[in-house]
Amino acid sequence: MIGRRSKPSTQAEDKPKGFDDFELRLGDLMRGERATLAKSLLDVQRELRIKAAYIAAIESCDVAAFETPSFIAGYVRSYARYLGLDPDWAFEKFCREAGYQPTHGMAAAASGPKPQRRPTEVAEALANPNATFVPRTQAFWTQIEPRAIGSVFVLALLAGGIGYGGWSVLQEVQRVQLAPVDQAPGVVAELDPLQGVQPMRTADADDSLPELPVPEALDRIYRPAALDTPVLIARDGPIAAIDPSQTGVLAGLPGAQPAIENALAEAAVESADPLVRTVAAEAPALEILAVRPAWVRVSAADGSVLFEKVMDAGERYAPPKLEEAPVLRTGESGAIYFAVNGVAHGPVGKRGEVTKNIVLAPEAVSEKYATAKIDADGDLARMIAVADASGVAAVQPAGQ
């Protein structure tokens, strides 16, 4: 193992020199020390932050490699301190071997003109970016593969083809083509709204008044045909206008008119009702009476619901007259009564009971339910009294 020898002596020896004695230069000494440390120029540059070209110039004692002569003293002392040499002795030996005369930093010669370098110098070789030992950077085109270019080209052609196909289909859809036909198109004549109007004539010397247009034609102009309202004639009008003495079997007979009038008068007297009506003429044959609030539902024979609600106290409902009588279902049987031709029947059942499938026919209700007793239910009596006072069709309880 090669070990580092002791620090070299900087003292000049007075002993006589032999034939093999030679002068050791500063650059050789620094290169030996750097080799002992196993450091390259780039390692020194990375650790001391000094360019490798300057380190090589220091070892070669080349002053021309430095751009600023005033920094030479600091570079030499820093490099000598890094190698373990005496900085002052190293700088003095560098000045003696390179013929360098240090100047003050503010002097004009400290930042003199840049010295010209020779291409053969070591510092110039290290500073040259195109040196043979510097790795070459690959060009941009060398990183592109031909297969990638072909794939991109095929993809572009595919996208262009799809776009062109879509554009062609869109043009075909929007295109309107006229195909010839054997039948020639007919010409629709325009309707003149003033077709039925007679033209107005200017008054001449012989005419006293100008002729006016027909009112019906003017009415057609200002009233569209869709808004025409049909004229309705009552049937009783023409029938009442028939005279029996002039039309029919009695037409032309002498004395027919007085006989017809007498027959009509007798028929009117015979048709008169001598009895006093206790129920209004428009009263229905069957009604549902609710003396207290109760839920009821009236359904037709096919199951459809005709009436369903909670009837309030005093409310009535007359079921419609159908081919088949509807049926009733109630949730409060004690509050529901029936009025059959003005006579109260019921109640439907006991209080709180649910009764269903009650056929709403006058005959069926009269047979199933007896006449109501006014003394048994005060709400029924109150409802009858209110109906009599308000003039509503009367309801007759039992015994009246």
UniProtKB/TrEMBL annotation:
The entry's keywords: Membrane, Transmembrane, Transmembrane helix
Protein name: DUF4115 domain-containing protein
Keyword Membrane: yes
Membrane-spanning ranges: 148-167
Membrane is among the record's keywords: yes
Residues of the Cytoskeleton protein RodZ-like C-terminal domain: 289-355
Gene3D superfamilies noted in UniProt: lambda repressor-like DNA-binding domains
PANTHER family: CYTOSKELETON PROTEIN RODZ, PTHR34475
